[in-house]
Fold this sequence. Notes:
Structural class: mainly beta
Distance between the termini: 13 Å
Strand order of the largest sheet: 2-5-4-3-6-9-11
Amino acid sequence: xxxxxxxxxxxxxxxxxxxxxxxxxxxxxxxxxxxxxxxxxxxxxxxxxxxxxxxxxxxxxxxxxxxxxxxxxxxxxxxxxxxxxxxxxxxxxxxxxxxxxxxxxxxxxxxxxxxxxxxxxxxxxxxxxxxxxxxxxxxxxxxxxxxxxxxxxxxxxxxxxxxxxxxxxxxxxxxxxxxxxxxxxxxxxxxxxxxxxxxxxxxxxxxxxxxxxxxxxxxxxxxxxxxxxxxxxxxxxxxxxxxxxxxxxxxxxxxxxxxxxxxxxxxxxxxxxxxxxxxxxxxxxxxxxxxxxxxxxxxxxxxxxxxxxxxxxxxxxxxxxxxxxxxxxxxxxxxxxxxxxxxxxxxxxxxxxxxxxxxxxxxxxxxxxxxxxxxxxxxxxx
Length: 382
């Protein structure tokens, strides 16, 4: 499933009426300094995790959360060039005020910036979220050096899902003047934001309780040998617009991520999520810890299973800006009297989901391995 693109226009500060206005023939107040407004409109993104850094259909950019803006000023007779310098704004912090009565997210910033005269300079802008500086720890490190255009953004994934951020970046808006900045409101700069990461969602199906057990839930999901750091390079050309390129550092055996804060009896309504760098997942392994209560007992037992993604139909590439859904179930194979946890692509309500299973591994209870690979497993339909 694809992340839905959101449209961002940044910050909105009302200023008092300025005296001594004069207008030219096309209605532009050329003699009056006009502040540059940044505001926001949004379309649905679907549900997200509860971290303050996640953008949702209900919140837009969360209240009080900041994003950073870079701005360029160059002669009115020139076009923006990749060799330009962010000399007008460098990582300017803009803070969400939340949504107004019209459903638009508003942003404040200070000090205000003003439009130059249209016949003297042009402006260009782009933005990223969430804002990062030397005093913040979002995992994002912007480097937009002089003469490097849009620069580069180093990124490191947080170890726990609850700390991860929804890294987004906008298209570059070029060659703007007070008159040309927006058809609806000439003082407003409008951005279109894109998700820079892949979202992986695990649905835990607790409805399919295996024979011999009254209930079960997943206590933890740990992903091992996952690439956690990389560098994003945004670029712009007049014919193709803005594009984004990742160089991802190779994973090591010590690189792991954890889905934390899993609620008991997690269901489709309370999924487990990770935001990851785009990468091939074939060498990634999952360790899933399960708690189950046998029939006739009040005491839960705890076990775990590990599986390599390359051994499942869930193997493949996680691409930028896309969401991938997987369902985790506990299954008992009656003829073998073994208990397995297995993974299938898709959410529980996916029309291609059924009772077929793949990539399952036996659960190890109390240090005793009671099973092996499922030799007769049918491939999941997807």
